[in-house]
Amino acid sequence: MIRPLVSRLAPWLVVLVVLTYWLDKMQQPGVQQNGELQQGVDYIIENLDGIQVDYTLAAHRLFTAHTLTHYPQGDITHLEQVNFTSIEPDQPMIRVSADHAELTEGGKDIYLSGNVSVIRGEDADRDKVTMLTTFLHLIPDGSTAKTDQSVVVTRMNSTINAVGMVLNNQTGDIQLLSRVSARDERTRR
């Protein structure tokens, strides 16, 4: 009596074990061909607008992004169509825009790419400085920005082209790394 029962249950037990194994594999994160775990999306926010106000410093920071995607593994945030504006008393306005941004470890490092634009000053300001590049690495804790890509810096009628740049925002020093050329197109009198 027990033998026929075991023989009837054996195929069902095999099917149950195979099904359990398959379900377990489906629930585990997959492995990419390079061996890294695929990163699951934690959350996605579209059409993001934000304001940060520091009342003691009277500082305002405005930011927008078309899409924000957060990955919990590695605490990485991807942003698309990013705009950032910083307004502080006795400081020129700073505007930064880029097609893409990646923030790591909660903003410890920020990587901007694709049509990166940094504008210091208002549009009507004579001292307005514009910097254009395809990649910019921002290190907020060190007040540093750097790139190894081509950079175009424009102020009034002067244009500087270079490859590579390191900017220290605390000291205001800009170091242009290679292939530096400058052009001044002021009207001659």
UniProtKB/TrEMBL annotation:
Signal sequence interval, chain numbering: none
Pfam entry (one): LptC
Source superkingdom: Bacteria
GO molecular function, one term: glycolipid transfer activity
InterPro entries on file: LipoPS_assembly_LptC-rel, LPS_export_LptC, LptC
Keywords on record: Cell inner membrane, Cell membrane, Membrane, Transmembrane, Transmembrane helix
Gene Ontology CC annotation, any one: outer membrane-bounded periplasmic space
Protein name listed in UniProt: Lipopolysaccharide export system protein LptC
Species: Nitrosomonas halophila
Lineage of the organism: Bacteria, Pseudomonadati, Pseudomonadota, Betaproteobacteria, Nitrosomonadales
